[in-house]
Amino acid sequence: MTHADVHRAGNAPARVDLIEGETYCWCACGRSANQPFCDGSHQGTGLDPVVFIARKSETVLLCRCKQTGTPPLCDGSHNKSQ
Fold first, then answer.
1. 11/37 Cα distance (integer angstroms)
2. Alpha-carbon gap, residue 79 to 51, rounded angstroms
3. Which segments constitute the Iron-binding zinc finger CDGSH type domain (predicted)?
4. Using 50, 70 and 90 to split pLDDT, how confident is the model at 69?
């Protein structure tokens, strides 16, 4: 996947409350209407969501610009790629 293949879904991260042990599917393509989570809109693109299990219950910032180097977490890339 290259940055050119993804759609920017927002200019700021999404604040999300994760629940320990729950499985999440972060949208990596930017096409999902359920940002920052996958709704299957990537079908046929060759892009796949990032599936992860929350290690603990906590509030995190999930990337919506899809430029992060630490998916699914925001690394501040939205500040550099606007």
1. 16
2. 25
3. 11-48, 49-82
4. very high
